[in-house]
Amino acid sequence: MSTLTNNHTLIAADAAAVALADRVIAGLGLPGDGIEVEDPATSERIAFIEDIHVDGALQAVATAHEAGRSWARTTPRQRADVLHAWHALLVEHTEDLAHLISREMGKPLAEARGEVKYGSDFVRWYAEEAVRPAGNFREAPDGGASIVTRRAPVGLAVLITPWNFPLAMATRKIAPALAAGCPSVIKPANLTPLTTIFAVELARRAGVPADLVQVVTTSNASQFSEAVLRDERVRKVSFTGSTEVGRTLLRLASDTVLRSSMELGGNAPLIVFDDADLDRAIEGTMAAKLRNGGQSCIGANRIYVQNGIAAAFAEGLAERIGAVAVGAGLGSGTELGPLIDDRAVRQMRAFTNDAVARGAELLTGGTELGPVGHFFAPTVLDRVPPDAEVACTEIFGPIAAIQRFDSEAEVVARANATEFGLAGYVFSENIDRALNVADRLETGLVGINQGVPSNAAAPFGGVKQSGLGREGSSEGMEEYQSVRFYNIARR
Ligand code: NAD
């Protein structure tokens, strides 16, 4: 390709959509000072949230713990009914939630609506899961005993979430904790706390006891975790965020041998074989790369394309990505929103410069977009060398970095040459090949001929340094339960 298609004009936010989001914020009853929350499309301050210090966090632990005593004694059906009611309220407030997500996080409204669907699906899933059998029965092999297992709530859970999916990351933790019978203290990211605050308010309106789920917002996250994770009333930590912070939390968790779930960073390979359907592969890559502006832990990070199809794929992808409409999430027709902050924009610029300096070809994008907000043009780099930063680091932005390959064995080895192992993607019309390659990828999940593999019914999580434990599905509930057994003597 010779021409660059990066003359994006930013779409401005729609005033009525902003007004709707701001009405929801006004209804949250937030304080007039504290930690500032900004709109990443304009850098405008949209709210203050409380800065809760250690004493307040420990008070939240005490309050949730106390409320947890009676919650643990509720019946599965009672818990299910409350979760169903919460799901209904989340669905009823889809527009409020979607506008709020867009306003504080920046994603396009259509994607924000998708997050409301995805996030509320977890609540419905765990409403259903709450009443499913949670134990089993077996005979001891020597016939001398019957062994009955049951699952008990693990206890108070501390939930720490990132900014990129402010609703779904919260419901994916709160809902299984509630279904299992556990109280929780959730600390959302300071960049996007409003959605979590509103979602928990809806949970209370649905019948979740007021004290059972505590939201703690704080400017001092490390002080928070050092105090709270050492409190012996806390029995579980579930974290979604960077691998670096995950390691710190695991070290802290070791002091009290705390049950830990860690959903950490990724470096997903996306592999396109010569026998892939070109259009399907390009559409799947668009979704796996540009969903959430590329700010997703399962975002396609290293795009490997087999030599026979590489030129057509790169050209087709650059054409599609170059034509994407960029602007405020609350703008009409926006397909790609801003990045979360300026640091992310500078990082995209550095990735692009480094790759081009090492010989990559810039097919489209590669520039900051302004004048306000944190925008970077959707970018395609071809023939990226494997040692370029963009090929070794989690990108977390709208850069598609293409590398080329010859053989199946070569690409599997290259795909696995990373300490991360969250998601992978394979595109091939030969299902045997696709499944064989998927089997050999060292990842927790694989999208086959599709770019959006997440689902409330699927056990989401990573291997290697991408994490411990699973979220979603029945496995996600087991994270909040401890297994006990009764050994009943038989004669
Ligand atoms: P981050 O690790 O900086 O922050 C995540 C959360 O942890 C935030 O709430 C933050 O305030 C909090 N935090 C930071 N330091 C802490 C400490 N010492 N003690 C307690 N809490 C602390 O990550 P981020 O920038 O918000 O999110 C991006 C990262 O999250 C990426 O690496 C991405 O891959 C990862 N992520 C993973 C998944 C997954 O399911 N595997 C999903 C989304 C995001």
TrEMBL record:
PROSITE patterns hit by this protein: ALDEHYDE_DEHYDR_CYS, ALDEHYDE_DEHYDR_GLU
Keyword Thylakoid among record annotations: no
UniProt-recorded Gene Ontology molecular function terms: succinate-semialdehyde dehydrogenase (NAD+) activity
Cross-referenced Pfam families: Aldedh
Residues the record marks as active site: E263
Organism of provenance: Nocardioides eburneiflavus
Family designation: Belongs to the aldehyde dehydrogenase family.
Oxidoreductase found in the keyword field: yes
Signal peptide: none
Cross-referenced CDD domains: ALDH_F5_SSADH_GabD (cd07103)
Highest taxon of the lineage: Bacteria
Protein name: NAD-dependent succinate-semialdehyde dehydrogenase
Single GO biological process annotation from the record: gamma-aminobutyric acid catabolic process
SUPFAM superfamilies attached to this UniProt entry: ALDH-like (SSF53720)
